[in-house]
């Protein structure tokens, strides 16, 4: 695996684990801020939990361990040694996992949602970057995990705009930072052709569909105003499914209800595929990316809702759950 490398580090210790790997796979899913990885090793050096695992795939020239080739950085959270085979199994998470292991005391977010979320998470000492999310916050949270605050704010952004977001880890020459990214904004867009697809199925889902939306504005624990929007045709064909959202003081309940209904009142077209490829540029593929599949006579765009990737003998095998976006 000359174009693929796995390095363990703890303190000043560094071990290259690549040659001992028997299996390596990683996965990501919507509504999670960190990816997960499992590695199995034979003849492994002494590795410890909380040590860092760094994975590289050759996307540029030069050494494979160049920082621009790194697609993974995060802690080993558990290790298990098989007493008979002496095979070592490691469970690993991305560095953002630590946001799910620390709590903040009753945070108060008031102002532009993106700026406030960035300010709050950055106050922990983590380089965290968030774009404008298009709405304001005025909310006192209970004592809760940093990851829960992030997911709550991003869910509110989805309710107002119809766009989902995810948290990515960006490697630099001196370190890394965490960045909130809107789904479908990846700069490298995979195009999968039929020859690469080994399994495929299609369907529809109403798991996140709502046919009635009510937006409410509250003040001093009293309902100040509200607006309900109904997609009558969708109620007839899909049934009544109502969502209730709270809006901020400077927002219009009618506008928010209409926006939310437009985004959520249609069933979602889904697809599941298994793809095999050898492109190291796609080692960072994760939930939230947009991918393109070549169909009969056209290309289709999909958002990845979950993925599981394994790598062996220079080939990636990727299982993808997809949601349809638009036809090109």
Question: N-to-C SSE series?
Answer: EEEEEEEEEHEEEHEEEEEEHEHEEEE
The span between the termini is: 37 Å
Oligomer: single chain
The percentage of residues in β strands lies in over 45%
Shape, please?
globular
Largest sheet: 13 strands, mixed
Task: Explain this structure.
The chain is mainly β and 328 residues long. It is 14% helix and 48% strand. The chain contains 4 helices and 23 strands. The chain has helices at 113-122, 146-161, 232-238, 253-264; strands at residues 4-10, 13-16, 21-29, 36-41, 52-57, 70-81, 88-93, 103-104, 108-112, 128-129, 136-140, 144-145, 165-171, 176-182, 191-192, 197-205, 212-219, 222-230, 242-246, 268-277, 290-295, 298-312, 315-327. The strands form 5 sheets. Strands 1, 2, 3, 4, 5, 6, 7, 15, 16, 20, 21, 22 and 23 form a 13-stranded mixed beta sheet that branches. Strands 10-14-13 form a 3-stranded mixed beta sheet. A 3-stranded mixed beta sheet has the order 18-17-19. A hairpin with a 2-residue loop joins strand 21 and strand 22. Helix 1 packs antiparallel against helix 2 (146-161). The longest helix has 16 residues, at 146-161. It is globular.
Summarize the model shown.
The protein is mainly β and about 325 residues long.
Q: How is this fold's topology laid out?
A:
Layout: E1 4-10, E2 13-16, E3 21-29, E4 36-41, E5 52-57, E6 70-81, E7 88-93, E8 103-104, E9 108-112, H1 113-122, E10 128-129, E11 136-140, E12 144-145, H2 146-161, E13 165-171, E14 176-182, E15 191-192, E16 197-205, E17 212-219, E18 222-230, H3 232-238, E19 242-246, H4 253-264, E20 268-277, E21 290-295, E22 298-312, E23 315-327
Parallel strand pairs: 10-14, 15-21, 17-19
Antiparallel strand pairs: 1-2, 1-5, 3-4, 3-22, 4-7, 5-6, 6-7, 8-12, 9-11, 13-14, 16-20, 17-18, 20-23, 21-22, 22-23
Helix pairs in contact: 1-2
């Amino acid at each position: 695996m000359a174009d693929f490398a796995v390095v363990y580090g703890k303190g000043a210790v560094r071990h290259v684990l690549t040659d001992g790997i028997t299996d390596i796979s990683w996965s990501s899913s919507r509504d999670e801020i960190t990816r997960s990885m499992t590695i199995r090793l034979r003849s492994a050096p002494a590795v410890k939990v909380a040590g860092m695992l760094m994975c590289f795939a050759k996307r540029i020239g030069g050494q494979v361990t160049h920082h621009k080739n790194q697609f993974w950085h995060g802690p080993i959270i558990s290790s298990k040694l098989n007493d008979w085979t002496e095979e070592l199994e490691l469970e690993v998470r991305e560095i953002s996992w630590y946001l799910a292991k620390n709590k903040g005391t009753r945070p108060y977010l008031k102002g532009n949602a993106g700026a406030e979320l960035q300010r709050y998470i950055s106050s922990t000492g983590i380089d965290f970057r968030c774009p404008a999310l298009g709405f304001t916050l005025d909310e006192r949270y209970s004592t809760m995990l940093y990851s829960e605050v992030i997911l709550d704010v991003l869910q509110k952004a989805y309710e107002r705009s119809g766009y989902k977001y995810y948290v990515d880890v960006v490697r630099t020459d001196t370190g890394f930072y965490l960045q909130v990214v809107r789904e479908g904004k990846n700069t490298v867009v995979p195009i999968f052709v039929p020859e690469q697809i080994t399994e495929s199925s299609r369907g529809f889902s109403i798991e996140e569909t709502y046919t009635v939306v009510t937006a409410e504005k509250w003040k001093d624990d009293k309902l100040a105003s509200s607006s309900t929007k109904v997609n009558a045709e969708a109620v007839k064909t899909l049934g009544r499914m109502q969502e209730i959202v709270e809006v901020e003081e400077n927002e219009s309940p009618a506008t928010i209800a209409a926006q939310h209904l437009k985004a959520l009142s249609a069933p979602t077209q889904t697809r599941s595929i298994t793809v095999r490829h050898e492109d190291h540029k796609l080692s960072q593929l994760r939930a939230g990316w947009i991918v393109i599949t070549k169909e009969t006579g056209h290309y289709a765009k999909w958002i990845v809702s979950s993925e599981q990737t394994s790598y062996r003998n220079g080939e990636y095998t990727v299982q993808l759950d997809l949601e349809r976006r638009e036809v090109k």
